[in-house]
Amino acid sequence: MSGTSTAPAEIAFILNDAGATHLVLDAAHLPLYERFAAASPNLRAVLVVDAPRRLQPPLTDYEHALAAAEPLRGPARDWQPDHLVQLYYTSGTTGRAKGVMLSQRNVSANAIHAIMVLHFDQHDTWIHATPMFHLADAWACWTLAWVGGRHVFLREFTPRGYLTLLQAHRVTASLLVPTMINALINDPAMREFDVSALRLLAFGAAPMPVDRLKAAMQLFPATTFVQLYGMTETAPFATSLFYDEAIVTGPEHVSRRLASCGREIPGVEVRVLREDGREVATGELGEIVMRGPNVMLGYWQQADATAEALRGGWMHSGDMATVDEEGFIFIVDRKKDMIISGGENVYSTEVENALYLHPAVLEVAVIGLPDPYWGERVHAVVVLKEGQHVNGEELTNFCRNQIAGFKIPRSVAFADALPKTGSGKIQKAAMRARYWSAHEAETGRRI
After folding, report:
1. Dist CA 392 CA 413 (whole Å)
2. Do 239 and 351 fall within a single domain?
3. Does residue 359 sit in helix, strand or coil?
4. 344 C-beta neighbours (distance < 10 Å), count
5. Which DSSP helix (H) or strand (E) runs through 33?
6. Which residues of the chain register pLDDT less than 70?
7. 395 and 412 in contact (C-beta within 8 Å)?
8. Which residues, in sequence order, are CB contacts of 182 under 8 Å at separation 6+?
9. 1 belongs to a structural domain
10. What is the pLDDT of residue 439?
11. Helix 135-146 with 104-118: angle, nearest 10 deg
């Protein structure tokens, strides 16, 4: 549970929807608990780690409860491979959060796949830098424990905090989301730290601009970079792309191949399908679908959503992609993030990649806004690097050399920061909502 990124009402919804009866938290989250306690009547016990004071029921000191517990004489239950063992709630950026049901088979399969693909062993030290309530990091808990690896925990990500632990503990492996890598490469202190022990840096959960990936590779010259693609519903990994794979056809293809999320990992089938269910031809657009032992049981108490997501025996991702002649998959955009302007499809990631090439841009999100003439217009929200100054006209002119005219932002806004989920994804849905809700109030419909 993250007190800094999750509202009390959201926590109460998840606890109630899941039917949770027990909760474990640390003392730092007690003020947050008091804000959602009344709205969570099903909680019978709340175990508090490092309790600072005498607690009243249902609050219980964790160490006291542990000391008073009876030792197990055998397994707590007869676990079977398809039993539900974990319930992860999606971020809910597009509406009501859904509980993703993962089985013993799902999480075990993903751990085995990760060990095979990423070559973990007892000599590895993993730093938990992304939120552990999210599968961007949670998978590493049992995967590294399975091989006898070592764990280092970062309470809250900051570039200096991350680099300090990386150096002090000689960390060998890590996963970051692109916004974190972006923060690292823009921190002037980056070169002051010894990061030579880091053999593997994985990234995923959101698109990674190619120029930022190249900059990161220069700052971590001894590190192998790997992009991992998947989703909570696939526990989470389905594809991988190592830098060495990106140059398999020669240096002239590096930039293009680095934009790929790779190919399916062992044990998982990944396809890109057209609307009619057939596989796409080379360069043709379709939706990424996946199947394998890592694919979820379904959504908690949402049979219709489960049937829709798992139709035809495949997990439908909602990610639109193309495939090249060697089977590398290129994510173009989320279905819901595609902008239709004047009858043309505009993929927000393509516009964002163009803007990221500008030296003044730190972060950017591109969304579609209601427009009476175009239906939707391309709108960019930009965060500038510290000390940089640029206006919207300069940025749109810069884009003219990068992308076609109909893709260029017709409006640009500047912000101090972009809204993000607890896992570090930019919340485009929240950014769109305030514009579209006002438009719908005026017109009574969504264009």
Report:
1. 7
2. no
3. coil
4. 13
5. helix 30-36
6. 1-6, 91-96, 205-207, 244-255, 335, 342-343, 373, 422-423, 435-447
7. yes
8. 212, 362, 363
9. no
10. 47
11. 80
pLDDT tens-digit map of 352-391: 888 998 999 999 999 988 877 677 889 999 999 999 999 9
Q: How far is CA 108 from CA 98, 105, 143, 235, 305, in A?
A: 22, 5, 8, 9, 25
Q: Are residues 320 and 434 in the same domain?
A: no
Report strand pairing: 22-26 vs 286-291: unpaired
- The token duo for 357 is 């090439």
pLDDT at 440: 44
- What pLDDT digit, counting tens, does each position of 335-357 carry? 677 787 866 778 788 888 889 98
How far apart are the C-alpha atoms of 76 and 65, rounded to whole Å?
Answer: 17
- Looking at the domain assignment, is residue 78 inside a domain? no
Taking a C-beta distance cutoff of 8 angstroms, is the pair 411, 192 a contact? no
State how far the Cα of 24 lies from the Cα of 246, in Å rounded to an integer. 43
Q: Is the separation of the CB atoms in 333 and 320 below 8 Å?
A: yes
User: 3-state DSSP helix/strand/coil percent for the chain, to nearest 5?
Assistant: 35, 25, 40
Q: Are 96 and 147 in contact (CB under 8 A)?
A: no
Per DSSP, 297 falls in state S
Residue 413's nearest CA partner among 439, 438, 434 is 434
A 10 A CB-CB count for 150 gives 16
Phi, psi at 311, each rounded to 5°: -60, 140
Rounded Cα gap, residues 439 and 423, in angstroms: 30
In whole angstroms, what is the distance from residue 407 CA to residue 340 CA?
Answer: 10
- Beta strand spans in 90-194 (E): 99-103, 125-128, 150-153, 173-176
Pairing type for strands 22-26 and 45-49 reads: parallel
- Contact in structure between 269 and 290 (CB atoms under 8 Å): yes
Query: Identity (one letter) of the amino acid at 33?
Result: Y
Residue 339 in tokens: 């902008």
324 plus 347 within the same structural domain: no
Q: State the residue range of the domain holding 392.
A: 338-443
Look-up of token digits 């899941």: 18
Pair (129, 165) in one structural domain: yes
> Which one, of 201, 6, 230, lies nearest residue 107 by Cα?
230
Work out how many domains the chain is built from and give that number: 3
Q: Residue 280 is encoded by which pair of tokens?
A: 């796409």
Q: Which two tokens stand for residue 442?
A: 């005026």
Q: How far apart are CA 169 and CA 126, in angstroms?
A: 9
DSSP strands (E only) in 197-297? 200-203, 224-230, 237-242, 263-264, 269-273, 286-291
Cβ contacts of 108 within 8 Å, gap of 6 or more: 81
Return the pLDDT at 15.
Answer: 95
Q: Is residue 81 part of a domain?
A: no
